Every structure is written in C-alpha cells, then in structure tokens.
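Now read these lines:
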Amino acid sequence: MKQNNGNLNELLEKSSTAKSFFGALPDYVQGGIMLRSSEIKNEDDLHKCADVIKKEFE
C-alpha cells in the first residue's frame, strides 16, 4: 500500500520553518509523522503530531 504524503510534502515544500522543524526531529518521530502524513494540514498539526509521537515513546 502506498503512503499518501501529499499534505506533509506540500507543507515541507512551502514552509522553511516546518522543514527545519521536521529535519531536526529524531528519525523515529519523522517516521511516525510520515505514517500520519494525511493528518498534517499545517505547522500546528505537525507540532502536535510530533508531540504525540514523542509522548508515545516516553
């Protein structure tokens, strides 16, 4: 099954701050975000998703 990273990819292409934030995250968080990429509509969603994934691994 192919992942749909369209929303995430568009955000990272359009926003240098989102791209920098995403790039600074640990690999496991980036991977989790990519699995949930369809939920990412804006930078706020990106930050919230990263926080949720980090808490799952605490």
In short: The helical segments are 6-14, 16-24, 27-35, 43-56.
